[in-house]
Amino acid sequence: MGIEVEGLASNVIKYKLMQEHSEEEILHDFGRRIQRCYGCFIAYHLKDMYLGEDVTFFCEHCKDEMMFHFDEFSKLLDLSKLNEVTGEHHH
Predict the structure, then answer these.
(1) pLDDT tens across 33-86, in order?
(2) Rg of the Cα trace of the chain?
(3) How far apart are CA 63 and CA 52, in angstroms?
(4) Would you call 49 helix, strand, or coil by DSSP?
(5) Residue 16 DSSP one-character state
(6) Is 69 left (phi over 0), alpha (psi -120 to 50) or beta?
(7) Which of 47, 67, 77, 85 is most buried (most C-beta within 10 Å)?
């Protein structure tokens, strides 16, 4: 019973956060995360990176034509699962 109540409370919090912030605001915050390029190991904002097929991120200088820019792959994300909505940290 306790687990069900915690799950319900968590879903209510996520719902409220999704209602309080637009998708654009959530993606803007998500894009401000820092990620190292898998090619040159320089840190970039996620919004400036490209997603490789093996879920690695590359900068504009190391990308290839098969990768997707943040603007493309961010549209496919389930925003309710992002740390910016759940309030959890990924570290």
Answers:
(1) 899 999 999 999 999 999 998 889 999 999 999 999 988 888 887 777 766 555
(2) 16
(3) 8
(4) coil
(5) H
(6) beta
(7) 85
The structure tokens 């637009």 sit at 22
The whole-angstrom distance between residue 19's C-alpha and the CA centroid of its chain comes to 18
Six token digits for residue 47: 């919004």
d(CA 21, CA 39): 34
Please tell me whether residue 9 adopts helix, strand or coil conformation: helix
17 φψ region: left (φ > 0), alpha (ψ -120 to 50), beta (else): alpha
Q: And the tokens for 42? A: 């320089």
Q: Rounded to whole angstroms, how far apart are CA atoms 70 and 91?
A: 21
Nearest to 31 by CA among 45, 12, 16, 44: 45
**What six digits make up the tokens of 73?**
């792959």
CB 88 within 8 A of CB 81: no
